[in-house]
């Protein structure tokens, strides 16, 4: 499309309106569809750093099948999502949570 010099202000105004509309649509889409956590794969060193463990400790956990891992050839890969879930699965209840009655039933002492 070619515009004359006199048409440029109107063309730019229309362009701004369209860009603003696209921006609004993207923001609306983001609020309706919260982004899933990225499931990037990590190398053994990256996973060790992510978990604040040494590489040898991580190898030990892999050999004992204590931690979720993917193996391709001789390489090990770790999913960030799976590692996060693995860490969360080890959560211990607080004293308050242990002593809270559930459904009105008092736990035996």
UniProtKB/TrEMBL annotation:
Q: What are the Helix-turn-helix domain coordinates in residue numbering? A: 41-90
- Cite the InterPro entries for this sequence: DNA-bd_dom_put_sf, HTH_17
- Out of the domains of life, which is the source? Bacteria
An example of a Pfam family matching this protein is HTH_17
Provide the protein name: Helix-turn-helix domain-containing protein
């Amino acid at each position: 499309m070619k515009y004359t010099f006199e048409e440029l202000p109107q063309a730019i105004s229309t362009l701004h309106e369209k860009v603003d509309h696209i921006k609004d649509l993207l923001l609306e889409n983001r609020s309706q569809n919260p982004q899933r956590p990225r499931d990037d794969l990590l190398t053994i060193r990256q996973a060790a750093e992510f978990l604040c463990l040494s590489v040898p400790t991580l190898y030990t956990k892999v050999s004992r099948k204590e931690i979720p891992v993917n193996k391709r050839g001789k390489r090990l890969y770790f999913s960030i999502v799976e590692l996060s879930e693995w860490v969360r699965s080890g959560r211990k209840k607080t004293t308050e949570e242990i002593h809270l009655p559930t459904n009105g039933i008092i736990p035996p002492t």
